[in-house]
């Protein structure tokens, strides 16, 4: 069952080959049996999942369901879920139970999807390896001595190991695409504002975007169809009509103009990853696409710009965790100052504290112009590069990451080396554009991701372009050994 696509599962449920309750039990059993090796879930709520499955079965019996009715999924533990703990993988929120569902959670539940539980992640989504989680690291199912990527590492590992049919993720600088690439799955970060951020715990509000992690573009389209769209509760959510993503999957792509940014193929890229990406591009040529070299001259500045903007926003967003209203509170505070400082020192891990300190520094009166303002200016130049590129091409392609998954523990002592993992993904967030990662030919058994970057609100085309490749190839169907 676990190897079937969402379309196949939905068809089986309709034909009563098995019920959603049976399907949900199957996934819960897999989680119980296999997740101890991965640690991809922080919370599993079997009772709530089986109750949702029973409701789905009733809807199916009345021939009512939608495409996702009865399909078991998981949510990154950054999305608030009413009655189920939302920890953001932080000690700060270890016992936090939200009084409401995030819009994305609400919409997928209304569509009939069954939530199995909440997936592990880097603390407050800060990281590229899932090693900053308060609940311990997640292992990559393709090689459990390696990282799954981050920050949505739990969702990526769970989808790759077939512990759920699909999962949600969030992407502030690469957190959907990078773990999707390292775990051999398909991930899409939509345009900024496409999916509501309401109820999604904020890291860097001008960059954060919810999206989907699934095994294929077609599976992702089913979820995005339900998640996307305007939400009046999120002032940055876009009032732009949502096309039917599933409908667009099979569109012809002959004549497609693909741009390859020369900055994405230079120094720092593992040549074996580069070769796998080039082989994938050749498949697109067979499909009638036209390849052009382009330049995104300011993109090499995206990592330094991001590490000013994102910490600045995070220092402001995380100011709400003060030990007073909710979250961790230290024992026996001597006074108010002690309450704040000790609660935060105990509640936040090292990486989160580093970001808060960098953020308050770059926003401080004496350094604002030198760092924050300058970063904002370069951010605009980075967005302008893309604008020019999209006058010439329909989609931009390149590697998602410079290398395949690295070993657990490898980069934890060197934050800059860790940050450089997102060298190809961050510019997209700074510009607010949609991006995707799809699995291509692996390197020595480890997955490699091809990144697709589209113009604003061009998700339907990205999914279509990805689907055409997946129609032709089988890399997205490969399953990690030992997780049968
Ligand atoms: N790895 C990046 C960071 O550490 C991006 C994280 C994300 O997209 N949430 O900030």
From TrEMBL:
Keywords: ATP-binding, Ligase, Nucleotide-binding, Protein biosynthesis. Residues 22-463 form the Amidase domain. The keyword Nucleotide-binding applies. Pfam families: Amidase. Its EC number is 6.3.5.7. It catalyses: L-glutamyl-tRNA(Gln) + L-glutamine + ATP + H2O = L-glutaminyl-tRNA(Gln) + L-glutamate + ADP + phosphate + H(+). The keyword Cell cycle does not apply. It comes from the Bacteria. InterPro entries: Amidase, Amidase_CS, Amidase_dom, AS_sf, GatA. The active site is at residues 76, 151, 175. GO terms for molecular function: glutaminyl-tRNA synthase (glutamine-hydrolyzing) activity. Belongs to the amidase family. GatA subfamily. Heterotrimer of A, B and C subunits. PANTHER family: GLUTAMYL-TRNA(GLN) AMIDOTRANSFERASE SUBUNIT A (PTHR11895:SF151), TRANSAMIDASE (PTHR11895). Allows the formation of correctly charged Gln-tRNA(Gln) through the transamidation of misacylated Glu-tRNA(Gln) in organisms which lack glutaminyl-tRNA synthetase. The reaction takes place in the presence of glutamine and ATP through an activated gamma-phospho-Glu-tRNA(Gln). This is Glutamyl-tRNA(Gln) amidotransferase subunit A. It comes from Marichromatium bheemlicum. The lineage of its organism: Bacteria, Pseudomonadati, Pseudomonadota, Gammaproteobacteria, Chromatiales.
